[in-house]
Design brief:
Helix content: 40-55%
Distance between the termini: 32 Å
Order of helices and strands: EEEEEHHHHHHHHHHHH
Length: 330
């Protein structure tokens, strides 16, 4: 049972209140009706404005009603718009999952091809300033800074795409413009990642393959190809596709919140992406893996770690009590 009524009695006034329970949640605004006389209280407590909820870190607060993804960790079930990920995660391409996430339905063959070609065409139109900006960095510079700078150059090349520069709303409630911007943003990110990887490796930029998928072109443009064939390794593409399907929607993470915060000001999508990447670059977010790899490399090997430390860390480890959808049929 997930719906009902919460009965609250305020000991300060002996008043009784009924607060609706919806999907095992109550609305914080409902508690505003619970008020007490202001006499004899600290004015900063603002008791006359109703009861407030205190939840440091939002540890037990649902900040929005989310309809895109349904997750049951105990059963290992994850659904995107009602589609069980276990039914498609091994076979879906990036274009399939992306279309489902963005437009709420599984694409037809023609819709998938339109999306694939749209991404390729957008990735073929690379402003010269984007290339110059990224290549101006030292080859040893962190790739994230190169990518962010490249994305900023993309925005600067198209001032008409910036609502503040155009002095009007360009995207809010304008879904055709949003759809076009989504394609351009995904392609720009792919291009900047590829340019940064090639610059760091000291190799010429690589164009996208008109017959390739988004993820295969990600490998191609970053120079991650088979030495004999010059093409991306099919197994690597396959595993990245699976990883994308599993992690396509991570909910309200730090960088997602940063993206949405930027979007709430009606900024352009590329600027919102820059905000998200900047927010996620900390070692407490998705750069934790990079920091860990460098730390392990600095250690050099197990022989440099005292046995007592290894045992201590192993003892402290905790396993997540969640079943991965990837293990459903294994």
């Amino acid at each position: 049972m997930s719906e009902g009524v919460l009965y609250v009695t305020d000991s300060r006034t002996s008043q009784r209140y009924e607060i609706p329970i919806y999907r095992n949640t109550v609305r914080a605004s409902s508690f505003q009706a619970i008020k007490a006389p202001a006499a004899g209280t600290n004015r900063a407590d603002q008791v006359a404005n109703g009861l407030r909820l205190y939840d440091p870190g939002l540890k037990n607060t649902a900040i929005s009603e989310y309809k895109l993804t349904s997750l049951d960790g105990s059963m290992g079930i994850m659904q995107f718009w009602g589609h069980n990920i276990a039914d498609f995660w091994e076979t879906a391409d990036f274009e399939d999952t992306t279309h489902l996430l963005l437009w709420g339905r599984w694409p037809t063959a023609s819709e998938k091809e339109v999306l694939r070609m749209g991404l390729i065409k957008a990735a073929q139109d690379v402003p010269g300033s984007v290339i110059r900006v990224i290549q101006a960095f030292p080859r040893t510079a962190p790739p994230m800074q190169m990518v962010i700078a490249g994305l900023a150059a993309y925005v600067g090349e198209n001032p008409s795409s910036i609502p503040a520069n155009a002095c009007r709303n360009l995207y809010h409630a304008n879904m055709p413009a949003v759809d076009k911007a989504i394609i351009q943003t995904l392609a720009a990110f792919q291009v900047c990642v590829g340019l940064a990887a090639c610059h760091r490796a000291g190799i010429p930029p690589r164009p996208v393959d008109i017959n390739g998928s988004f993820l295969s072109n990600m490998f191609l443009t970053t120079g991650n190809v088979d030495k004999d064939t010059g093409k991306p390794n099919s197994k690597s593409v396959y595993h990245l596709q699976r990883l994308w399907a599993l992690g396509a929607d991570l909910g309200h993470t730090n960088n997602t919140a940063a993206f949405l915060l930027g979007a709430s000001t009606l900024a352009d999508p590329l600027s919102c992406l820059i905000s998200a990447l900047s927010s996620g670059y900390g070692i407490m977010h998705f750069m934790a893996a990079e920091a860990s790899i460098k730390s392990l490399a600095a250690i050099g090997g197990k022989q440099n770690v005292p046995d007592s430390d290894c045992e201590s860390q192993a003892t402290r480890g905790k396993a997540l009590r969640l079943r991965s959808p990837s293990l459903q049929n294994h």
